[in-house]
Write a structure and sequence with these properties.
The structure is a homodimer of 370-residue chains. With 370 residues, chain A is an alpha/beta fold. Chain A has 2 domains: 10-16 and 272-369, Aspartate Aminotransferase, domain 1 (Alpha-Beta Complex), CATH 3.90.1150.10; 21-267, Aspartate Aminotransferase, domain 2, CATH 3.40.640.10. Chain A is 40% helix and 15% strand. Chain A has 12 helices and 14 strands. Chain A has helices at residues 21-27, 37-54, 68-79, 93-104, 122-131, 156-162, 211-218, 231-238, 254-270, 272-292, 317-328, 355-369, and strands spanning 10-11, 60-64, 85-90, 108-113, 135-141, 143-144, 149-150, 166-170, 189-191, 205-209, 306-310, 330-331, 333-334, 343-347. In chain A, the strands form 4 sheets. Chain A has a 7-stranded mixed beta sheet, with helices on both faces. A 3-stranded antiparallel beta sheet of chain A has the order 11-14-13, covered by helices on one side. In chain A, strands 1-12 form a two-stranded parallel sheet. The radius of gyration of chain A is 20 Å and the shape is globular. The first copy, chain A, starts with 9 loop residues before the first strand and ends with a helix. Chains A and B meet through α1, α2, α3, α4 and α9 of A and α1, α2, α3, α4 and α9 of B.
Chain lengths: 370, 370
Amino acid sequence: MNTQFPAERILLGPGPSPVSSRVLRALAAPTLGHLDPQYIAILDETCEMLRQVFQTKNQLTFPVSGTGMAGMECVAVNLIEPGDEVIACVNGVFGGRMKDVMERCGATVHTIELVWGDVFSHEQISAALEQHPKTKLVGIVHAETSTGAHQPLEGLANLVRARDALLVVDAVTSLGGHELRVDEWKIDAIYSGTQKCLSCPPGLAPVSFGERALAKMDARKSKPQSWYLDVSLLRKYYNGAGGGGRVYHHTAPVNMTYALREALAIVLEEGLDNRIARHARMHQRLRVGLDAMGLSYVPKHSLHTLNCINIPAGADDAIVRKRLLDEYGIEIGGGLGVMAGKAWRIGLMGHGSTVRNVDLVLAALREILR
Amino acid sequence: MNTQFPAERILLGPGPSPVSSRVLRALAAPTLGHLDPQYIAILDETCEMLRQVFQTKNQLTFPVSGTGMAGMECVAVNLIEPGDEVIACVNGVFGGRMKDVMERCGATVHTIELVWGDVFSHEQISAALEQHPKTKLVGIVHAETSTGAHQPLEGLANLVRARDALLVVDAVTSLGGHELRVDEWKIDAIYSGTQKCLSCPPGLAPVSFGERALAKMDARKSKPQSWYLDVSLLRKYYNGAGGGGRVYHHTAPVNMTYALREALAIVLEEGLDNRIARHARMHQRLRVGLDAMGLSYVPKHSLHTLNCINIPAGADDAIVRKRLLDEYGIEIGGGLGVMAGKAWRIGLMGHGSTVRNVDLVLAALREILR
């Protein structure tokens, strides 16, 4: 195997998504110091563009120096203190991970569990809040990458705020590909990844914290268990420490920030609404083609960014995916967790969500499955 | 300020160090999926080269998906359980951080504190171990980036092992620039960063765990408090889960791995011994020049990779560094912690440790300080 020159795959799995040459070029710009005024200006631009893509005015919006799961952990360790009660909505792998991460923070985690692929109703969340009146926060996954289910979020915050709890959202597979209005939907804390609908390489986790979340953090009795992800320290670097100064915390991933800035610039050049509409159209195009082949979706309410379909009877999961990769250069994802061997996951994210890619993957699947 | 095209600085601060065009080119290669067989092969090569640079046979040697401080946290959360007693050797900022990180893991941290710039003797560490016989691990900084002090490590493990404790080493500013023999020196767990003597952009933290550390982790009664850094999960991806398979944990920072592999290839092409000797020569060359200008070092026992010098009377810290950056394109570091305003830190790391750079920074300082 030639490992010197990575192949040019068509990345239609659950992420990473295809990265445009513009973003790759930005990634390779000369490395600056993390306290260089020029780098600070680049970082500030990046955070401002992140606010636009999150549709928020939250000052504390920045890329965590880790992948999407570090974003989840950042939100959890800062908002949870040992003994807190929280609710985790579990309808797939990532809801389950949220439970695990929150338990490791010392929380008592109450779960609402659904059949994988289903989404939560307001009534279910209301009932859980009524049952657990001391709940500090409710964690829910907007785009469940393991099942392809698309969780509606509008109106949810009102239920959560009525109980003085925080709404925490996993938007790893929706940011930049699905409608997501952090301020309008009153989301208190949210995290995502760069390698999905933003089409930047993996390595950063955009997060945003609202005023209610900050108030809870400021009222903490104990330090967050993670120094690396401690927002009270990080904000002195990302938001400044007064007088324009920045307090060193850790050495920021400079080149990844260049790439993220370029990826966000591309999102905003296209226009967020146009981009979201494109993801909807490409999903529809794929869906029509899959329907015609008799392939069915796992979730009732599918994401546009990730298409989780049942593996048809008679098809060999591993062989089909290997042929797609080896013969067509196309990566799709296998099933995750209880879906392993039962589902395929076709991602149409960011730079990868195009007519060409939809038609290519359909053509290749038709060839292989016929 | 033009933020579109980052300036080409000469990075002679405490890191990031200058990144060669080879590494930048590797960084910009097409993104592969993190479970693609080609990417797994690249990752395996990277880990194998890391073993060579760490001079270890430790199977569990891999780059943590975060910056150097994530490496420190990874080692701490996996080796420490709440209530454990540990010793942290504090003679600068990074020893102090080790204490903070370990306390957040629930450890009772006993510290040995020295004047900044000094290094620890075997006697001091022996005495601390005698005083705290339940010590589970001793954490010490090989290359204290805040003071430039070079801590000798040889023979230390014997003292620590005699008490059945683990030796944990911070090698962020030494790996690839100073002699560092993980197996020969019986270091049980070690972490570093990519942006120092490896001259790769910041974003990954190479770590290595020996058998004794693994045994302690396997004997844990509780899960590590961090899911993101939980080695019992990570090793199923980095080392495989039997049968050649890899278990998805998080989406690895694919492009950063390309860059690290290229950076490590450059280290091994030069030869580790040659590279270490080059760092020693460049340090000596700088030192002679600084001496001639009447500039003195903070530590008695200086690193070759980082030169921490006292700011001469009459020089304005901020103005000198701003002039170096604006007029000469040279970044050096200011003082950190108690050294702020009192010291400059001149890094000669990896790709940046060259005759040209030594002579340039000396010439520029002579101009500015005359």
